[in-house]
Design brief:
Blueprint (H helix, E strand, L loop, with lengths): L8 H4 L17 H8 L4 E5 L6 H9 L6 E4 L9 H11 L18 H14 L4 E6 L6 H13 L5 E7 L9 H4 L3 E4 L1 H4 L3 H10 L8 H9 L3 H14 L9 H4 L1 H11 L5 H9 L6 E2 H8 L4 H12 L2 E4 L5 E4 L1 H14 L1 H17 L3 H11 L2 H17 L3 H10 L2 H4 L3 H13 L3 H13 L7 H15 L5 H4 L1 H8 L7 H18 L2 H18 L2 H17 L3 H14 L2 H6 L3 H14 L3 H14 L10 H19 L6 H10 L8 H18 L3 H14 L4 H13 L3 H13 L9 H15 L3 H18 L3 H4 L3 H9 L8 H9 L6 H6 L2 H9 L6 H8 L3 H15 L4 H11 L4
Parallel strand pairs: 1-4, 1-5, 2-3, 3-4
Antiparallel strand pairs: 6-8, 7-8
Length: about 900
Amino acid sequence: MDDLGGTRPDLLSPKPTAVPRPPLALMARPRLVAKLDCTASTVLICAPAGYGKTVLLSQWLDGQLHDVAWLGPDQHNREALWPAILGALRRCPAVPPRALEQFSGAEDCAVDVLGDLAQVLTASGTTIRLVIDGVDGFAPVERDYWIPALLNQAGLPLQLVLAFRDNSAVDPGPARLSGRVIELGAKDLAFTVNDINVLAARTTTLVGVQQLPELFRQTQGWPACVVLALRYLREAANPDAALGDLAANDRQLSDYLDHQILSALSREERHVLSSSSVCREVVAAQANILAGNTNAGCILSRLADDKGIVESSGIGRNVFLVHPLIRGYFKARLARKHPDELLRFSRIAARWHECAGEPVAALRHAMDSADNDLIIDVLERHGAALLGSGEVVHVRRAIAALPDALFAVNPKLCVVAALAYVESRQPTTATRYLAAANRHRTAEPPAELRELQALAKARLSWFSDAWESHDPQATVDHAALRFSGHSDVRNEARMVTVTAALVEGSYGIAENEASAALIEASEAGNAYLAGKVYLKLAAMYSLQGQLRRAGEVLRLSEEKLPRQLWTAGAGRSAGALMHASAALLRAEPNKALQFAAAGLSELGQLGSSSTGVGGAMRATLEIITACAHLDSGNRRNALGDLRQARLRISRDHVFARPLAASIAVIEHTAALAFGHADQAREVLEWAEERIPGTGELCLLRAQGPAGISRFDAASDRLRPLHAGTITPLLEWTRLHVTVLECSMALRTGRRTLAGKLLEEALHTAAELDVLRPLAIAPREVMDFLVERVGAYGPREALAQRLLTLRPPTDTRQAQSLTPREREVLALLPSHLSQEQMAAELHLSVNTVKTHIRIIYSKLGAGSRHDAVAAAYKTGYLP
């Protein structure tokens, strides 16, 4: 690698060598070698020191020494370029020994000399690769005269290969325009992440999972710096440790940058880089202010064009990004030698970004400046807007950096802090800050402060046990926040309105408000607001049981909210809850348990409210967890857990009705399936109080009679659903109804009707992306599904998937009990007498005795106790 520690052979040898061996065989570069092999054009390789220019040329020319003339500048005696070229050609084996005797090396007319050279080489029938490694080591007057002549001489049988560090050393001019030049730069020569990983393994360096991407981010694949960084990590031998700032912590790397890269810069260039090192990227005008030099932008532009340690972009290419290692070097040097200057530069940068309308960068630089007054000023001016655009983490870090005493005298700062923590779904902390703001509020607070306080109060109300008495929507309307002059305040007020509509079940209003918010978010280019709106819409569809639409919108929300914002703000618990609900209803109980566990781990942040948003989410996740345990076969205590979750849902809960509808259907269906008639009756009585006039209550009233073959009564209780006089709160309730009616049709011998109902159920399941009601369907429905396999057309894949969800039971035994026999079997563990069983099933005692005798025979049992034990073992009973 060229210039690695000052060990390049062609710079140390008193006489030029042929093709030098690389000082360190780091990595084979087959892709680049292949690219060079495929061209006969002029090759220009330009990159700063340490990018492996010499190594690449050595790999390319290895084994092809016969037609190569290689030269590098002799730094002890700066001979002219033409004599050096002549000497390299005379040493080339492909050039006849006395073919170049006519040249003395003192010629000074490039056109004549190169014309004569072309004749000599053409006569010898040889095309030579002339490699000039380190063009910029020759005097400018020499290279500016001879290099353009070499590039533009027609008919010269030379393939010119030039390697140099500074772009100003070579001007390809017409050769580039004519397409006769292939160019490789620093980005071409830089190592990829995979290259670094391979190199680490080759040098037995343990690099941690987190260290590798950070190593690449800081070095940008700069080969020499990668080698030194790996050496540093090998000595540290701790792959779990944070990588830290390489330019500050690795002395060898810092010395390398100083001696090999930065020592070649002028004092003015070094000052510009030093003063702008506080910025990740800097524009020309900002660089001028930081450096106190109106020419600073031009200097950065020159460094970008010529030196390759700065990148330029943007309109007019006036946005500059200094290489991370160079920036890190100068910033670390300031911190060690001139800490006050570092803080001063940060203050200047903060003020500049604030004036430029870039509050995020302003807040970041204000924190770097350690100037509390500056931090407070930026938070007061821009805190609410920053939160509205998703910069929750930055605002909270700034708040944490300030002493508590400053909040005691600044109500606006307290309100911004309250909004930051409510955005992070930490209402307990938010309430503390809002209380502090109220304690120090003046008699006539400014309008902006009143708006922010009203907004914080409204948003916090949802997390309170007394959310109904607080009436968040009334707070928003009273404060006229929807007409605020600040767009972020208006947007958050609209979000309060959306939530209020969802709580009231006014889904049309919620959708209209959300659509208006989406339009505003799109016009403002606010991805964070759009993500929050999509999250609200996902919740709306989920509350209605439209799981497919909820999943589609939830994915849009996750795309809009990057991971760091998703976990720090709007999506943290709500996303896990919706994923858990969707997995449960897709009959994926194990996935549901994973998502529910993730959601439950965050609920402590939502405070101790039993009926607010936190309480509603906690109740929902408890329902999902209990049901998922039930579906995954872990039935011990599952019904009891469902009962406990149901009893915790009060009428005052946020989203109480959809929650009640969901738990009622799940628990009632499970209780009947497992023969717990008393619990099923308890659920029905509870549902009659909580969700009267709903489709879910019609379903529950029908399921009981259907279970004991009172099919006419069951049909009567479903009739209002079909007439449209009553509708379900949850769309997937209709799927339960269809499955129940399919079961009744099969048990009464109406197989044609059962087939139509099964088709309808499959269509609804696909439309809603809900499988659970079919996956837990009565055995006769699943048997019927098996019979018709292959005849479902576009729903065949869904039917096949349902079959894979069937519990592993003995198929022969499952088919050997009739539906009526299974009804009798379900009552055997209840200790009812045969007369009581007959009354429960509306059968004669003799009929019940006959069924029991047949059940004993089929299960191989000699007593009621043995039959119950065999039924548990074979899966007839849970």
